[in-house]
Write a structure and sequence with these properties.
With 262 residues, this protein is an alpha/beta fold. It contains 15 helices and five strands. It folds into two domains: 124 residues, Rossmann fold, CATH 3.40.50; 129 residues, Orthogonal Bundle (Arc Repressor Mutant, subunit A). Helix content is 56%, strand content 11%. It has a five-stranded parallel beta sheet, with helices on both faces. β3, α3 and β4 form a beta-alpha-beta unit. The longest helix has 19 residues. It is globular and about 50 Å long.
Length: 262
């Protein structure tokens, strides 16, 4: 069983999350809970869990600071962030500091939580020996997870504002994109835009943005000899390590390893 620490300052939310999932069936067990970041950090340092399910906005120490302090302590627990505010920038920072995913509390469902736990379980159990990459072949490349075509999203979506967001991202993926800039583009509130996009497309804004950027990065890797860090910058990732992390999460391999097998 993978051990889970639940960190949430709202008692009602904490109890709801505990009750809506049959944790053991998913291969997880709740090893503890905390109502703020300071309390959680003590638990993590004393007995590191495999997964921390953590609110972003909390008293004493927020979820982002907890994630940073956990990493500074050299503890590699997986983090999934809970938020109810659609704070694009906070979620981006959380992903950059190593969070595996995030869930919007206002629209959280059993399906969302089960899918997230399934992905975390796969990450925890996956073993990818480095030696396997050194003998990668074209056959191995064909077996790598295929990214869904982001362009097809436009054909499926009929909501005008969501289509505008998709067009904007596909035109400006190389630039800095924030939830605020997307909300201004369609003249809507940030929270509403975030929830609307997830409802109409089935994926979060940040995941869609990452997907578009990684698709473009793959094009560069296949058609140019540009350095990996330059490709990352060209598709909108200013942090090299973050680019490699997201690329590997979405394709199963690093950019350099992907290029070797093209």
């Amino acid at each position: 069983m993978w051990k889970v620490l639940l960190v949430e300052d709202e008692t009602f939310v904490r109890e709801s999350v505990k009750e809506i999932i049959r944790w053991e069936e998913m291969g997880f067990s709740l090893c503890g809970e905390a109502s703020n970041g300071e309390e959680a950090l003590e638990i993590i340092k004393r007995e590191p869990p495999d997964l921390v399910l953590c609110d972003i906005v909390m008293p004493k120490m927020d979820g982002l600071q907890l994630l940073k302090e956990t990493r500074r302590a050299g503890i590699g627990s997986k983090f999934v962030m809970l938020t109810c505010i659609g704070d694009f920038e906070s979620m981006r920072q959380a992903m950059e500091f190593g969070a595996s995913n995030y869930i919007l509390k206002l629209s959280m469902s059993v399906k969302d939580l089960r899918e997230t736990l399934g992905k975390i379980s796969a990450e925890l159990t996956a073993v990818k020996p480095a030696a396997a990459y050194s003998t990668a072949s074209e056959a191995a490349l064909r077996q790598q997870p295929k990214l869904p075509d982001s362009g097809s999203a436009i054909d499926r979506i009929t909501h005008p504002e969501v289509k505008k967001i998709i067009h904007y991202i596909e035109r400006h993926y190389a630039e800095e994109i924030t939830l605020a800039s997307l909300a201004r583009h369609v003249m809507m509130g940030e929270n509403y835009v975030s929830a609307l996009f997830k409802k109409k497309t089935g994926e979060t804004l940040i995941h869609y943005l990452h997907r578009v950027r990684i698709e473009k990065a793959i094009d560069y890797l296949r058609s140019t000899d540009l350095p990996v860090n330059q490709i990352g910058h060209n598709v909108g990732f200013m942090n090299d390590n973050y680019f490699i992390k997201i690329f590997k999460r979405m394709t199963g391999t690093t950019p350099s390893q992907y290029r070797q097998t093209r």
